[in-house]
Amino acid sequence: MSIVLEGQTVEGTLRAEVGVARLDAASSRDFKKEVDSLWSDGVVAVELDFSKVDFIDSSGVGALLGVYKRLPQGTASVRLKNVKAPVQSVIELLRLHRIFEIAS
Questions:
Q1: Where are the domains of the chain?
Q2: Where are the alpha helices (DSSP H) in 1-104?
Q3: What are the b/e assignments for 35-51, b being 16+ CB within 10 Å?
Q4: Is residue 1 within 8 Å of residue 31, measured between CB atoms?
Q5: How many CB atoms lie within 10 A of CB 93?
Q6: CA-CA distance, 14 to 23, in Å (whole number)?
Q7: Are 7 and 38 in contact (CB under 8 A)?
Q8: Angle CA(3)–CA(36)–CA(1) in degrees, nearest 5?
Q9: Minimal CB count within 10 Å: which of 60, 81, 96, 98?
Q10: Are 76 and 41 in contact (CB under 8 A)?
Q11: C-alpha separations of 79 from 9, 34, 39 in Å
Q12: Looking at domain 4-103, which CATH architecture does it have?
């Protein structure tokens, strides 16, 4: 099963849809591999559609931070679209809304 659906890079922004309900220890390793396979030189921003994600744990958060750390310093932008309330709560609890732009 694919974790990342419909990934493509447009004008330096990697846009992809996360296609699982749980971004957790079981799926985060595959998430990282699939993002790696989509990554190309010149990516300066990432936009992830979280409309299917109902749950995220520390492994999922770690995978998102890994994406953030791959981006160029100073211009890094990770945008999470269609974030559901339980996922947003975890991100805000960890104060990662300062790093990730959240668009629900």
A1: 4-103
A2: 25-38, 58-70, 85-93
A3: beebeeeebebbbbbbe
A4: no
A5: 9
A6: 19
A7: yes
A8: 20
A9: 98
A10: no
A11: 14, 18, 16
A12: 2-Layer Sandwich (3.30)
Run of H or E including 48: strand 45-49
The tens place of each residue's pLDDT in the chain, 104 residues long, gives 577 777 889 999 999 999 999 999 999 999 999 999 999 888 999 999 999 999 999 999 999 999 999 998 877 799 999 999 999 999 999 999 999 999 86
Taking each helix axis from N to C end, the angle separating 58-70 and 25-38, rounded to the nearest 10 degrees, works out to 20
Q: Which residues contact 77 (CB under 8 A, 6 or more apart)?
A: 44, 45, 46, 71, 101
Residue 20 three-state SS: coil
* Residue carrying the six token digits 């992830």: 48
- Name the residue type at position 82: N
